[in-house]
């Protein structure tokens, strides 16, 4: 039997993404978000939700752009740090010993050491309670060659992205491959 636990911001899985912005003085900044995901395929878009109080919020508004750097398991401590420290108070890139890389396509930095980067132009913003949901059109995705499969596509098992467990506020790794999407379900379709 299912038990009601009330209305909470809880879904599984949620990503651990690091949003890159420049502040008003051109200083690179980044913050970790979990309220995020793909929201459209054509044009390719993602959404990230930030509170107005965050330092990164102003950077997105000012520059009309942001990046998303997707950390591998090797960078879980750094990803957590980007979510608990403020760019108002310290240079997060310097403290984490990570490299801010200037995007050539949008006015926003990304993290050079993370295996996957999405460069986004701000398309829409929507006030939703405490958060503003920013919809970014993906103008390019950069992927380390070492995490590509034989067809040149990102391989989730090589990337080893970090996911966030909203219920217990913990980080997790991706599990094993369960089957090919749009295929394994055919076994239960009517002939």
From TrEMBL:
Cofactor(s) the record lists: FMN
Domain of life the protein comes from: Archaea
Annotated SUPFAM superfamilies: FMN-binding split barrel (SSF50475)
InterPro entries reported in the protein's UniProt record: Flavin_Rdtase-like_dom, Flavoredoxin, Split_barrel_FMN-bd
Keywords: Flavoprotein
Residue ranges occupied by any Flavin reductase like domain in the UniProt entry: 10-164
Keyword Flavoprotein: yes
Record-level Gene Ontology MF annotations: FMN binding
Family: Belongs to the flavoredoxin family.
PANTHER family: FLAVOREDOXIN, FLAVOREDOXIN-RELATED-RELATED
Name of the protein in its database record: Flavoredoxin Flr
